[in-house]
Structure formats: structure tokens, C-alpha cells
Amino acid sequence: MIQAKNIHKFYDNLEVLKGVDIHVKKSEVISIVGASGAGKTTLLQILGTLDRASTKTPYELVINGIDISSLNDKELAKFRNEHIGFIFQFHQLLPEFTALENVCIPAFIKGTKKDAAEKRAKELLDFLGLSQRYNHKPSELSGGEQQRVSVARALINNPDLIFADEPSGNLDSESAENLHNLFFKLRDEFGQTFVIVTHNEELADLADRKLTMVDGNIMV
Ligand SMILES: Nc1ncnc2c1ncn2[C@@H]1O[C@H](COP(=O)(O)OP(=O)(O)OP(=O)(O)O)[C@@H](O)[C@H]1O
Ligand SMILES: [Mg+2]
Fold it and tell me: Which residue of 10, 12, 16, 166 sits with most ligand 1 atoms within 8 Å of its CB, as the best mutation to test the pocket?
């Protein structure tokens, strides 16, 4: 599913990723742990095609058999919209839109018709226990509810691959556990692949493989 080799990232002269190699198989759940500043978010953004690796040294990034480094920005945006879902710690919902609208936006970008998008969005919101919250704006939802809306948004285009950065960082322990169970349920039911950065030891240990980042590299 993901094949990455020799991923470097520099901010000016600061080398934040130092030649990371990572391979993820389809339907694997991978957790990435490590100290603050180790480079976890930076790596996730590059694997998720939101950011590009440094080209100072040759690297490889192949996702779903597609050579990501060869895509231009427009092709990359289309690829991301169709194949990748993101769940962030600070859910980044659009404040002026309702829960239902926020969930539908990636589907509209993909070109899905309004009726079909809303039907799927409602299914996901129902599944996540939010059937009474379709028309609430983010400011009218609790933190855990906002987080679940962002999960529905990540899933609406049925992505092959889901990246999550501290997905349960803002949740109480019960909501966190529900969210973690959901990840594994989705993997079991739909074969989705997850790469999850987390400080939550329980979640990290539940993963098929737990990788530890230290100072810009994955420990082997
Ligand atoms: N845009 C940027 N410009 C300069 N330095 C940056 C930038 N983004 C991140 N860094 C630096 O890169 C390093 C890695 O950051 P990153 O966000 O990947 O860490 P992290 O492992 O996700 O940490 P945390 O657990 O605190 O989220 C940090 O030292 C950070 O200061
Ligand atoms: Mg981070």
C-alpha cells in the first residue's frame, strides 16, 4: 500500500527527517510513537501527500502502485481526495458549515451528486452516533462530537488509506476507546489501512505494528 524509501525533510538547515524507510501493507494498522519533535507529524504529512519530501537526495514514495513523486500538484490533490482520509487532533472542521455539510465537502470535491453524498454522510454520522446532530455547527458540538464528525469526513470517499495524527488526543477515555474500536472495525469490515500517530499507549499497542520515531528516523 505504501512504499517509502529514504525520505528526508529539511527546514532550512534543520534536518527533521533523516532518510526514513517505511512499508505498509494493505489493511495493516500501523502506529507511530515517539517524543515530541521526533518528526512524526512531518512524516505523516509527507506520506499523506500534504507535503513533499526533500529532493536533495533521491527518494521513493509509492502509494497504491502510484509514484507520488511524479505527480504535479493538481494530480496530487485529486489522488488525495480519492484515496486518502485524514483525521487530525484539532479536527479542522469548517466553522460556518453544519456537521452534515462538513462531512459532504470531500464528496462534493470528488464530484459526487448532492443526494448521494448526503445519504452516505448520514449513514456515517448515524454509525458514529450523531444522527441527532446533522444540522449543528462545530461550535454547537462537544469536542468528541467534532472529532467524530471529522472521522465521518475522512471516510466519506471510502479512502484506501487513512492517516490519523493524535486522533484521540482531545477525547475522554471512553470516546477514545470508541474511536479506536471504530478504526479496527473499519479495517476488519472494509480492509482499510491506517497509519496512526499517537501518544496513547493503549492504542499504539493495539496496532499490528508499532513503530518508534527517534530524532528523525524510525528505530529498527
Ligand atoms: N514549518 C516548520 N518550519 C521549521 N521547523 C519545523 C516546521 N515544522 C516542524 N518543524 C520542526 O520539525 C521537528 C519535527 O516536528 P514534528 O511536528 O514532525 O514533530 P512531532 O514528532 O509530530 O512532535 P509532536 O509529538 O510534538 O507533535 C520539530 O523540531 C519542529 O520544530
Ligand atoms: Mg506532531
Answer: 16
Block residue for cell numbers 509514484: 67
In a 13 Å sphere around the CA of 212, the CA atoms on its Cβ side amount to 6
Spell out the domain ranges in the chain. Answer: 27-55+78-218
Task: Judge if the beta carbon of residue 191 lies within 6 A of ligand 1.
Answer: no
Mean pLDDT by 10 residues, the chain (220 residues): 96 95 96 96 95 94 94 93 86 92 95 97 91 96 89 91 88 82 88 93 93 95
d(CA 126, ligand 1 centre) in Å: 36
Cα separation values, 200 from 62, 90, 165, 206, Å: 28, 16, 11, 10
Please report the pLDDT score of residue 129 as a whole number. 86
Q: Which atom of ligand 1 is nearest to the CA of 9?
A: 12
- 27-55+78-218 maps to CATH 3.40.50.300: yes
Q: Residue 9: CB within 6 Å of ligand 1?
A: no
Ligand 1 binding pocket includes 198 (Cβ within 6 Å): no
pTM: 0.90
Residue matched to cell numbers 517505511: 22
Ion ligand 2: residues, CB < 5 A: 41
